[in-house]
Amino acid sequence: MRIIRAAKVLTGRPGEVIADGEVAIDGATIASVGPRGSAGDADEVLELPGHTVLPGLIDAHVHLGFDAKVNPVTRRSGESDHHLLLRMAENARKLVSAGVTTARDLGGRDFLDVALRDAIEEGLAVGPHLLVATRPITITGGHCWYMGGEADDEPAIRRVARENLRAGADCLKIMASGGQMTPSAPPSWIRQYSTEEIRAVVEEAATRGKGVAAHAHAHAAIRSAVEAGVATIEHCSFFTSSGHRYDAELADLVAASGTYVCPTVHGVYWRLKEQVGSEMIDAWLSGVAAMREAGIRLIAGTDCGFGSAGVDNRADEYVAGLEVFAQTGYSNAEIIELATVLAADACGVSAVTGSLAAGKRADLIAVRGDPLDRLADLRNLALVLVSGRSVTQTGVDTVTSSVG
Ligand SMILES: [Zn+2]
Q: How close is the Cα of 3 to the center of ligand 1, in Å?
C-alpha cells in the first residue's frame, strides 16, 4: 500500500475538495480517499505539500496516427504500418506526459490502435489507457474514407461495424456529416447518413455494450445523431455553407436528450485566429458558449493529430484546449469536471476511472499549485499514475520535431 498526501485532493465529485487529503493505492487500484491519516499505515508515503491531486485527465477525441509529419489524405501511399505504429506510440507517450490517463482514439487505419492499446496495457509501450474506435464508418469517398471504413447502405454499415467490433473496437465512430481534410468528401455542412443508418451503428454497438461517437458538423447530421441515440456528438459546430450558424432549437433538442457533445476544443484555435481571421473562430467559440448556456453536457477532447491551416495540433498540448473552455464562461471547477468525470461518463468508463474513489483504477495526477485557482497549474505535473504506474516522461528527448 502506498499513500500520496497533498495540500488538496479533488475527488472529481462536483465541488468535493479534501484539504490536506490523501489517496491510498493498492497496486493498480485506489484503496481509499480521505483526509490525512484516514488510510492508516502504508509501506510508502509520498508527501506533496503545495500540490493538488486530482483524477487523471481524459481526452475524448484523439488521432494518434497523425501529426505534423503526416498528411492524413496522401499518407496511404507513404508510411508503412510498422512505422506508423511507432509514431502512434510516440504520440501516446506525449499524451500521457501531459497528464492524460485515458484517451479515446476516434479513427485510424488497419486496427493499429487496437495493437497499441493492448501494448500499453501490457506495459510494452508508455501511454494512457486507450479506448479505440478503429475505422470510422463513412460513405465511399467520404470523410476519412482512407482509414478503411467505407459503407454505403445499412447491410454494409452493419458489416463494417461488426468487423470493427470483431477486431476489438471499444466504441464505434460514424461520420454523420462530411468534413474538412478529405478532398473527395462532401463538405462539412452536408450529411452523409440518414437517422436510420446511424441507428444501425448504435444497434450494433449496443449488442456489445458499446457506444457510438458521431462526427457531425451539419445541422441535419446533429439532429439525426441525437435521434439515433449516439453516446457523443463530435464537433457539433452547426456548420452551414456560409459558416457557423447556431440553432437554439436544435441545441435545446441536444440538451434535452442528454447526449454528450465533444466540441473538440483545442489550443490551436488561438494560432488559427491569426491564420484564418478571428470572425470564423469567434463564431465557433460563441457557439460553444451558447451550448453551455443551453445546458448541453460538453466534454474535453482535442482532435489532436489533425492540425488545420498548417498549424500542428500536438498530443502534448491538452491543457491549452482546457484554457479555451475558460474563454467561453466555464469556471475552472467546471472545466476539471468536463475533463475528468464527465468525459469518463461520456466514454462509458465512469465505473472504472474519471474520479477518485475506493475501488476505481489508480489513474491520477499531482500538480504543483491549485488548478481551481489557476488552470495553467495543470501543466506543473509532479506525478502521473496510470493504473498505479508512474509514467511521467515530460521532457524526454526524441527525434520528432514536436519535442524539445
Ligand atoms: Zn477527429
A: 38
